Structure formats: structure tokens, C-alpha cells
Backbone:
């Protein structure tokens, strides 16, 4: 890359991370990202990983040290191999800014009069990080992370990604023998299935799948939340079974949420999916920008802003007219929190905002306090909502 172009892109990336780019700058940055697959992959790695802030803090006092720190970011390997399109979410009432050059987190929020209540806190609560447990068919459990690991059966684990494309061929009966990838509270991970489908798994999520797909379909079983980028194969449809809903995929990108006790939702970003209940309701076809939600034994479809439901994989919390109870459920999974309410009435208060997942929970709660009549007290991993 030419030095002038390098400096320009570096500046745009910094401004993008801060949330300061205008529409023209976003188009320029997007064009650069789409010019080569490795550029998009590099950019997503920079923006989505927890190491973003850690690397930026290495930006030191001299230009030489600053350049070296930037190169450390550029040279990191990617979690994804296929381009994903990031959509802008513009209905923002509160946004975290990540001042990259300074390496500090600032925030802006709507004023709630002149009153400001400080969060009572006894200890810092750190954000989640990539990590998973692989449970093999024989019951063996393997802890996964950044370290490169060659697993039995030919699977590879590296840079927070478990890859089955290198897996050894298995007997025909192995199709019914499922592997389990379990993501704990406060975790996330990326899985590449044998057919090259990429799956991003959110906190407190389990996915069951075979090492190889045989037969007439590719079927996996989800509990929790995952974003799928499915490798097209018209002769062998991809099916996700989640919380009483079957999602039949025809080569596409979509998000499925199926946490226990919550409504089951499928949000389509690109392509086409068919959705039905496992009880055998008529299949409903989704188009990009639509969400299917299970209600009773049926499926309800509505138009949505997909980024609201998929931003978690890009390192963001997006709250759109979301109540405090639902927000605290999401934060509890990512930060591994226990939440109690001293005032039940605050559960239904609404909040709008886009917040980074890679900051301490105290910073997020401080922003919410500024935009809603609610207070938080933090004691270790327990949050009391007042």
C-alpha cells in the first residue's frame, strides 16, 4: 500500500472506531474494504476483537513506536475468511466513542437534567472474551482459545476459530454422532463447519453438529444465539433447529436467537430462508430485512433493522426501544453477572443506544443511568438495579 493511502486508511479506521466518520468517509472506507477480501477480513478483526483497545494502548510516545503498534494490529490473522457486510445503525440516542489514538473510552449521552448519580461499585467487571469448550462424541472436553491446537480427527483450532474443513473423513454412521461446541457466559467463538459454513456463537450458547455432513441435508441444533454465513449447496439444504423452530437455508447470512425462556427469532440479512415450527406448520419464506418470530405454534414475520440483531458479532450492543430487564439479561450473559431488582418498576423503562461490548460494565451502566431514571449498584459480579 502506498504510504499516502496507508495514512489515509489508518485515519479513517481510527475515526470509524471513534464513530466520527461522515457518509462520504464511510463510503471511502467501505470501498477500500471491498477491494480485496483480505482487507475486509483485516478490518473486521481490528474492529471486532477485544484486542483492539489493548493494541491501541501500545501506541507509544514516538512515531516509530506508534507505527510498530499499528503494524501489530494489521498483521493479526482474521477470525473470518468470507466478507460480511456491516450495516449502519443510525437511530442512536447514546453512543460510546473509542478514541483510538488516546486509548481511552469516552462516552456521550443525553442529559437527564443537571442531576447525575454515580454508580456505586466495589470492583471492576470486565467484558467477555473468546473462549469455548468442545465436547467430543466420546465425552472428552477440550478448552479452546487463541492457542493453535491440532485436535484428534484432524480439526484445527487457531485464533479463536475451530475449523472442521481439515477434519478426517469419518464412517457413514458418524453422521448421527454429534459434536458439541459450548460457549460459556462471558464468551464468544467462531466455528467453521466441514462445508465451509461460518458460525459466530454468542455467550451462553450451544451448537450440536456432525464432523461431516452426509445424506440429503446439513442439519445443526442451536440453543442460544448464533450468526450463520452458510455455504450455498442447492442439493443439500442447511437446516438450523432452534427452540421449536426449523430454519431451512438456501445459502445466506442470518441470525438465530433461541435462549431458554425467550422468544425464538430468525433475522435474515442476505439470501433466502424458509422458517417453520418443528410441529410442522407451513413454511414461511423470509426476505432480507425480515424477522420471523415464533408465537405459539405459528410464525409471525415483520420488517426489522437487521443490524439491531446482528451487531453483537461486530462487538456492539444495539438497543432500540429496549427495556431495562431485557438489556440486563444481555449484559448478564456477556459480563457473567447476577442481576437483582430493588425496584421492579424500572424493568419496563426503555433505552436506545449503541455501546461497545469491549468495555467495563460500569461504563455501560453509567450511560444508561444518564438516559433513564434508573440507578445501579455493583458488588463484584452482582448488579442491583434501583
Residues:
Amino acid at each position: 500500500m502506498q504510504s499516502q493511502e496507508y495514512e489515509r486508511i489508518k485515519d479513517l479506521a481510527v475515526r470509524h472506531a471513534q464513530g466520527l466518520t461522515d457518509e462520504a468517509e464511510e463510503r471511502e472506507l467501505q470501498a477500500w474494504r471491498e477491494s480485496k477480501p483480505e482487507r475486509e477480513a483485516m478490518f473486521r478483526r481490528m474492529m471486532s476483537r477485544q484486542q483492539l483497545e489493548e493494541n491501541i494502548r501500545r501506541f507509544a510516545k514516538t512515531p516509530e513506536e506508534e507505527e510498530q503498534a499499528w503494524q501489530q494490529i494489521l498483521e493479526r490473522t482474521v477470525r473470518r475468511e468470507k466478507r460480511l457486510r456491516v450495516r449502519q445503525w443510525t437511530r442512536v440516542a447514546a453512543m460510546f466513542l473509542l478514541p483510538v489514538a488516546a486509548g481511552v473510552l469516552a462516552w456521550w449521552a443525553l442529559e437527564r437534567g443537571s442531576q447525575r448519580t454515580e454508580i456505586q461499585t466495589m470492583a471492576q467487571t470486565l467484558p467477555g472474551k473468546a473462549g469455548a469448550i468442545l465436547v467430543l462424541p466420546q465425552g472428552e472436553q477440550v478448552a479452546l482459545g487463541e492457542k493453535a491446537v491440532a485436535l484428534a480427527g484432524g480439526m484445527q483450532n487457531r485464533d479463536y476459530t475451530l475449523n472442521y474443513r481439515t477434519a478426517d473423513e469419518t464412517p457413514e454412521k458418524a453422521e448421527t454422532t454429534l459434536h458439541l461446541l459450548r460457549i460459556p457466559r462471558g464468551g464468544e467463538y467462531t466455528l467453521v463447519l466441514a462445508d465451509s459454513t461460518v458460525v459466530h456463537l454468542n455467550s451462553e450458547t450451544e451448537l450440536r453438529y456432525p464432523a461431516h455432513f452426509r445424506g440429503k441435508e446439513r442439519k445443526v441444533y442451536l440453543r442460544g444465539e448464533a450468526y450463520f454465513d452458510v455455504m450455498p449447496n442447492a442439493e443439500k439444504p442447511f437446516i438450523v433447529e432452534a427452540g421449536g423452530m426449523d430454519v431451512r437455508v438456501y445459502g445466506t447470512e442470518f441470525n438465530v436467537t433461541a435462549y431458554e425462556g425467550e422468544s425464538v427469532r430468525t433475522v435474515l440479512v442476505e439470501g433466502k430462508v424458509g422458517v417453520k415450527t418443528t410441529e410442522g406448520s407451513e413454511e414461511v419464506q423470509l426476505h432480507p430485512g425480515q424477522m420471523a418470530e415464533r408465537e405459539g405454534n405459528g410464525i409471525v414475520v415483520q420488517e426489522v433493522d437487521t443490524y439491531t440483531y446482528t451487531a453483537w458479532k461486530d462487538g456492539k450492543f444495539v438497543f432500540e426501544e429496549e427495556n431495562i430487564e431485557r438489556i440486563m439479561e444481555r449484559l448478564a450473559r456477556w459480563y457473567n453477572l447476577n442481576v437483582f431488582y430493588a425496584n421492579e418498576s424500572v424493568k419496563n423503562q426503555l433505552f436506545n443506544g449503541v455501546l461497545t461490548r469491549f468495555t467495563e460494565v460500569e461504563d455501560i451502566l453509567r450511560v444508561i443511568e444518564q438516559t433513564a431514571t434508573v440507578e445501579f449498584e455493583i458488588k463484584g459480579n452482582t448488579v442491583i438495579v434501583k
Q: What stands out?
A: The helical segments are 3-18, 23-35, 37-48, 51-56, 63-74, 306-310, 324-335, 361-371.
